[in-house]
Amino acid sequence: MDKNKIYSIWLSSVNNVGAKTYKKLIDYFESAENVYKSDNEELKNVVNNIRVYKNILDAKKINPYAYAERLNKEKIKVLLIDDDEYPKLLKEIYDAPQVLYVKGDIKESDELSMAIVGSRNATSYGKSVSEKFSYELSKHGFTIVSGMARGIDSLAHKGAIKAGGRTIAVLGCGVNIVYPEENKRLMEDIISNGAVVSEYPLDYLPLAGNFPARNRIISGLSLGVVVVEAGVKSGSLITAKFALEQGRDVFAVPGFITSAYSKGTNELIKQGAKLVTSSSDILEEYNFREDIKARINDQLINTLSSEEKKLYMAIVDCPRDIEELVEIMKFPVSKVNYLLSSLLFKGLIVRLPGNKYEKSFD
After folding, report:
1. Res. 362: pLDDT tops 60
2. What single DSSP character describes residue 101?
3. Ranges for the Smf/DprA SLOG domain (predicted)?
4. Rounded to an integer, what distance in angstroms lies between the CA atom of residue 277 and that of residue 169?
């Protein structure tokens, strides 16, 4: 880890130094190392906030290299906003975190991502929908982004994991803290199948004020946000608001008009969010966006089994009927039909008149 990164990590770990204060200090002092070595009176004038100033003075007593060594021991990566590995979608938002703590891995394929959020006190209907949407979108190559909270968020992560897909949890605390505590096993599974990320340093507690700011990262990492269940004062509506400001798509799942848990989502629909009742409604939204459509296709092909891929490649050459495919695959009709059903479900092929099949992407 180079010196610039070590000092940048140190500065980001100072209490109350958020993205705006961090940027202000770097703009003035030109580097985090210069902040660390700055004259105290000059620093006080630049910060213009006595609490933040005192926190930086306290942090100056800490050896930045010791904190970096701890991060290394706990296998926590830190991405600066200028790093090549920093998520491209997140970098686009106007208040992107200058520093992102990552436990697990963020991949280039995670650019094809969808956030699924909703109420902590979810109904059985909401939980079922969250897991179903997550599972199906994962099968189509989407990385599922959520906040690892109770209820809708947890089921969104679980659906992606069940599908063998990737998922990213954005925390409102340090990545070394499990919150809520009952999600310890889920957090381990998320790290194994994606990543947990946060702009907050290690040991930073899950304070109530952290979560609204956290929500801008959930939407910032995603092409769109699906709100499954939300009351009128739900934090999920904050995520939807950030999504709109960031130019992301907003989808809402309708609910009973008499349910308090659906008042927020139903209101989003009245305000213009796209009403969705299946994952197909979401995929349909991207049918006319060739760049995203191509990425969905590429992601899907990468997730195919060797047998599915062989069958798909046979159909890519030209439309084929079942007899031709049985001959090519050297499998019983029942197995070829099973593989065809899988490719149809994933949207990679379509059935033509005469029981022929062809690829669905141009």
Report:
1. no
2. E
3. 77-286
4. 24
Residue type, 261: Y
Residue 117: beta bridge partners?
Answer: 227
The boundaries of every CATH 3.40.50.450 domain in the chain are: 108-285
Pair 303, 347: CB distance under 8 Å: no
Mean pLDDT in residue range 9-17: 89
Distance, CA of 309 to CA of 321 (rounded, Å): 17
Cβ atoms of 273 and 227 within 8 Å: the answer is yes
* C-beta separation of 199 from 217 below 8 A: yes
Residue partners of 341: CB distance under 8 A and separation at least 6: none
Q: Where in the chain is the domain with CATH 1.10.10.10?
A: 304-359
Q: What is the pLDDT of residues 117-127, one digit of tens each?
A: 999 999 999 99
pTM comes to 0.82
Domain ranges in the chain with CATH number 1.10.150.20: 3-73
Burial class (CB in 10 A: 0-12, 13-18, 19+), 140: buried
Are 67 and 10 a contacting pair, CB within 8 Å? yes
- Angle of helix 235-245 relative to helix 210-220, nearest 10 degrees, comes to 50
Structure tokens at 57: 């003075």
Q: Are 276 and 252 in contact (CB under 8 A)?
A: yes
Domain 108-285 in CATH 1.20.1630.10? The answer is no
Residue 173 tokens, joined: 């605390």
HSE-CB for 35 with a 13 A CA cutoff: 32
Integer CA distances (angstroms), 31 to 19, 35, 80, 116, 163, in order? 15, 7, 13, 37, 44
The average confidence (pLDDT) of the chain is: 91
The alpha-carbon radius of gyration of the chain (Å, integer) is 23
Give the type of residue at 244: L
CATH domain 3-73 topology: DNA polymerase; domain 1 (1.10.150)
Instruction: Centre a 10 Å sphere on the Cβ of residue 216 and count the other Cβ atoms it contains.
Output: 25
Q: Say which CATH class 304-359 falls into.
A: mainly alpha
Whole-angstrom CA distances from 310 to 323, 324, 337 are 16, 13, 14
Per-residue pLDDT at 288 exceeds 70: no
Return d(Cα 195, Cα 77) in angstroms, integer: 10
